[in-house]
Amino acid sequence: MQAIKNKAIQLSSFSSEQLQDYLNLALERAGHPQLMSSERTRTLAAHAANSLRVLNQMASDLFNSAAERNMPRIDESLFPSFILFKIPAHTLKKPLDYITKPCNFALVTK
To answer: Does residue 105 fall inside a structural domain?
Structure first.
């Protein structure tokens, strides 16, 4: 067990080509490889900052947005940031709300 504690996992970033391959494979395994064109997968991979997590999150946002609009295929209409990544006004808070508002919790002792 001591040997495991001293080991660190070294993770490297993915290339744009690896991210495209991953996304194409995911679409194929999901049974809908034509859902996104190669140009769209290339665009997502280029904007994913070489991160698989970022790519998955962006793809998830695109899929959800396409499903809400009943779109059979993801196209360029979903890509503008003001449509896809717009933050709803009701979720915005003043910067110091978490400091000025009291916490509502109770200390439980046994």
So the answer is: no
Query: What's the rounded Cα separation, in Å, for the pair 23 and 26?
Result: 5
3-state secondary structure (DSSP) of residue 24: helix
Report the SS3 class of residue 76: helix
- For residue 72, the SS3 value is coil
34-53 pLDDT, tens digit per residue, is 999 888 899 889 888 899 99
> Domain containing 52 — which CATH number?
1.10.8
Domain count, the chain: 1
Angle at 44 between CA 14 and CA 46, to 5 degrees: 55
What is this structure's pTM?
A: 0.63
